Amino acid sequence: MISLSNRFILSQSFKNFPIKGNFFKNFYYPNRKFSELSMSFKIACIQLAVSSDKSKNLINAKNKILEASKNGAKLICLPECFNSPYGTQHFAQYAENIPNGESVKTLSEAAKESKTYIIGGSIPEREDSTGKLYNTCTVYDPEGSLIAKHRKVHLFDIDVPGKIVFKESDSISPGNSLTHFDTKFGKIGVAICYDIRFPEMAMIAAQEGCIAMFYPGAFNMTTGPLHWELLQRARALDNQFYVVTCSPARDMSATYNAWGHSTIVNPSGTVIATTEHEEVIIYADIGNKWNKKL
Ligand SMILES: NC(=O)CCC(=O)C(=O)O
To answer: Where do the TM regions start and end (predicted)?
Structure first.
C-alpha cells in the first residue's frame, strides 16, 4: 500500500491561485495554439547517467545537450536530480544557491552555446536566507537567461513494506507555486516527478494555455513498472497536451535505483518515444500535426 502521507489537498495548497473566467469554458481547449513558428519542433530528453562526482555530471550534461542540439533539438530536458545521486543523505552535500551555483552557470552556458531552451531537470537548491533545501528545476532560454524556476511541490514519501521506503521530506521543503513559461513555440508547464500524481497541476497548466507539461522525474523499480507510463498517458489524454518525462539512467550500485524509461506522449495519450534504462537521448517532433494522424 503506497502511503501518500504528504498529499496536499489542492484546494488548500493552491487556494490563492487565480483561475480566471469560467474554468470549464475551454474544457476541450479548441483555441490553444502552437505558435505559427511551431507546426512542429524537435524536443530531446537526456536520460543521463548520474554519478557521485558532481563535476563529471555537469560536464556530461553539457556534452549531451550539445549533442542533442546538433541532432536538431530545440528544447532539451534533463532528469530530476541530474547533478547528484537521488537520496536524502546526498541533498545537503550537493545543494547550491540558485542562481549563484555552478549548475546554473553550466546550464546557462550550455543553453547559450547550443541556442536551445533547456529544462534543467532538477538540483538540490539551498536557500541561503533560511538554510532550507528544495528540489528545484531551472529553465533557460537560447540566450542562456534563467527564465523559470520550479520547486517540487509534492515531496516523495513512500513506504511499501519489503520494497521501498523513502522520505524526501526528511531533508527537502516543498515548493508552493505552479510554473509555466513562454517559449517561441508556445507556453510550457513544468513540475517534478511525484507532482505528476496530482492531476490538478496539469489541468491548470492546460487551462493556462500550455502545449506540453514536462516532468523531470526518477520513479523507482516498484512504482515505475506500475504507474510511470500510465500517469503520463493519463495526464496527456486528460488535458490534450504533450507530456514529457526525463529520468536518470539506472545505477544498480546507487541506493536509489531509477526506473529510467524516459518517455514522450502525444495529446491523444499515445507514446511517441520511449526507452529502457540505459544512458540515452530520446527525441520526438511535437506540434499540431498529431491530430491528423488519428
Ligand atoms: N522522485 C520521485 O518523486 C519519485 C516518485 C515515484 O517514484 C512515485 O511512485 O510517485
So the answer is: none
Residue 204 CB less than 6 A away from ligand 1: no
201 in any annotated domain:
yes
Segments forming the whole domain that contains residue 132? 41-286
Q: How many domains does the chain have?
A: 1
Ligand 1: residue whose CA is nearest its atom 6: 219
1 vs 20: which has the higher pLDDT: 20
Q: What is the CATH number of the domain that holds 211?
A: 3.60.110.10
- Chain-centroid distance of CA 184 in Å reads 19
- Catalytic residue annotation: 80, 152, 193
Mean pLDDT of the chain: 89
Kindly report, residue by residue over 26-79, the tens digit of the pLDDT: 345 555 666 655 568 999 999 999 999 999 999 999 999 999 999 999 999 999
Is residue 29 domain-resident?
Answer: no
Residue closest via CA to ligand 1's atom 7 equals: 219
**DSSP reduced 3-state for 181:** strand
Q: Cβ(96) to ligand 1 under 6 A?
A: no
Q: What is the mean pLDDT of residues 1-18?
A: 39
Query: Is the bond leading into 99 cis (omega within 30 degrees of zero)?
Result: yes
Q: Which amino acid is at 19?
A: I
